[in-house]
Amino acid sequence: MADFEIALSEGPNVKDLKIVWTPETGLPKIQSTGSSSGVLAKYKPQDVLQEKNLVDGLYVPPLDPKKQRKLARKNVKETAGAKWFNMPAPTITPELKKDLQLLKLRGVVDPKRHYKANDTKGVPKFFQVGRVVEGTAEFYSGRLTKKERKQTFADELLSSTQLKAYRKRKYLEIQDQKQQGGKKFYNQKKNRQKPSFAKD
């Protein structure tokens, strides 16, 4: 228990009432010498708070407002804004990244369709992936069957027979062009440089 001392002076004056309370901390008691040059007189409250070992052990320092604002900005989920109905930024998976790359190269997929050039080089920050639902007014040939519909855009393109035939044709054209400047072209060039009697 804590020690209480009440000292009343003679007379009814309330100003003379003296109350002293000392908490029980379990530490050895320091004998006061009565003079101001005692052990406790050396320490001031400001000095005690400035000591590092006491600060860490006794109280939590006040939070820095700059750090609080930075933490709050980090914790708020980023959105595209109110004009875009607070569309959140999606987590980019490898499959999603491949689909986005294919969308950028969509001009190569179909030779009869032409698209405007992309103004962004990297992956967009805010976007959504949806599924196209065909209208009832569309004819059956305009719709995809369940077998044709795939999980990702890349799988859909790879399974298309028309696209396979187009890719194969373009590949063979490119190979023919490259072979024109090969060994045959080199031999013809060398033959032209030879004198007329040495030509093949």
From TrEMBL:
GO terms for cellular component: nucleolus. It is found in: Nucleus, Nucleolus. One of its GO terms (biological process) is RNA processing. InterPro entries: Fcf2/DNTTIP2 (IPR039883), Fcf2_C (IPR014810). Keywords: Nucleus. Residues 176-200 are annotated as: Disordered. Residues 77-170 form the Fcf2 pre-rRNA processing C-terminal domain. This is Fcf2 pre-rRNA processing C-terminal domain-containing protein. The gene is LOC112284363.
